[in-house]
Specification:
mainly alpha; 2 domains; 4-stranded antiparallel beta sheet; 10 helices; globular
């Protein structure tokens, strides 16, 4: 879909908007999302109507259903909420955004992955593990600060809102979404690779300035790092869901690539250039700690990086040339020049 005017250009790939047939996992998750979100609304409204008769000052936002919502104080009684909260929302804007994200974006992602299993793993399994981590961190923080409330439910459904933009960046890195033409000082070519940090910046600012819910802020960033970590180190790719992979290896066994080892998918490249010098030593330290010292994650080999770069370039990603590579290239050019002109 393309739209152009004197003010802006809108460009969204037709493959992204193709929802003639919603894939199986996306269809199931969307139906569950609609049913459980509607159920939660009915339960809360019914409870509120009863409570308001006893206490006219009761706040609707404090009416909860711990079976569906993650309430830290009651998580031990209702651990089902770690899973079921992946399918609910209480805010109208988030319901609309997530439904569009699921129907359009979910269909696009599942078709590209060609795997319903991966879609279930990303939204349900990864989402539930992330929710468990968020609850544990919230409980720990409550020991040090009275401002962390354990009776207010945490949003357990950030995987779609935050995780999907990371996947869009992976699959459509250089594709332009909006190109602002005027006014000139705001002119900007907004591509999918900028979407994750834009979403994170917007949600972080709103939590800090308006909502002041710092446990929710931790939830947003934990979901971001968890989603990236899964795609970077753990997702399994085969020739069925990634045509750029060779069909078999030298021994005739079907090739499987774990994670996305491409240079462009490094965590540092999700952030603006202005803060990269600050973040790079931090990320390098964490990588050395997790991968090199404690070996929690298996390091990538050169062949993995080469294949990852090849896949990323086939998706339109620009090749990243490091300082070392530029020096090597310059040295080769000087050597060739000397050989031609001794």
């Amino acid at each position: 879909m393309q739209y152009s005017s004197r003010f802006l250009e809108l460009n969204v790939p037709d493959s992204f908007l193709n929802i003639n047939k919603i894939p199986d996992a996306t269809k199931f998750i969307t139906v569950m999302y609609i049913c459980l979100t509607t159920t939660l609304f009915c339960i809360r409204r019914s409870l509120y109507n009863k409570l308001i008769l006893e206490d006219p000052d009761v706040e609707y936002n404090l009416v909860t259903s711990p079976i569906l919502q993650m309430v830290p104080l009651q998580i031990w009684k209702y651990p089902t909420s770690l899973v079921l909260s992946n399918f609910i929302d209480t805010k109208a804007w988030k319901v609309i955004v997530n439904l569009l994200n699921l129907i359009i974006g979910g269909s696009f992602i599942e078709r590209n992955w060609n795997s319903s299993r991966e879609m279930f793993k990303f939204i349900i399994v990864l989402g539930s593990l992330t929710n468990l981590l968020i609850i544990l961190l919230t409980l720990i923080l409550s020991l040090f600060s009275d401002k962390v409330r354990l009776d207010i439910p945490l949003d357990g459904n950030y995987t779609i809102l935050i995780g999907f933009p990371i996947i869009y960046r992976q699959l459509l890195p250089e594709t332009t979404i909006i190109n602002l033409k005027t006014p000139r000082f705001l002119a900007k070519n907004f591509r999918f690779k900028l979407l994750p940090i834009f979403v994170m910046f917007t949600m972080t600012i709103t939590q800090i300035i308006w909502f002041h819910h710092f446990a929710q802020l931790f939830s947003i960033w934990i979901t971001f790092f968890a989603s990236w970590s899964y795609l970077r180190f753990f997702q399994r790719l085969t020739p069925l869901n990634c045509p750029s992979l060779p069909t078999t290896n030298s021994r005739g066994v079907q090739e499987t690539l774990i994670g996305d080892a491409s240079d462009t998918f490094q965590l540092i490249y999700f952030f603006p250039d202005l803060i990269k010098p600050i973040l790079r030593p931090i990320f390098d330290f964490i990588y050395d700690l997790v991968v090199v010292k404690f070996k929690i994650i298996k390091p990538f080999h050169d062949i993995d990086i080469d294949i990852g770069n090849s896949i990323a370039e086939s998706r339109g990603a620009k090749k990243i040339t490091t300082v070392e590579q530029r020096r090597r290239q310059l040295a080769l050019e000087v050597l060739e020049e000397r050989m031609v002109n001794p």
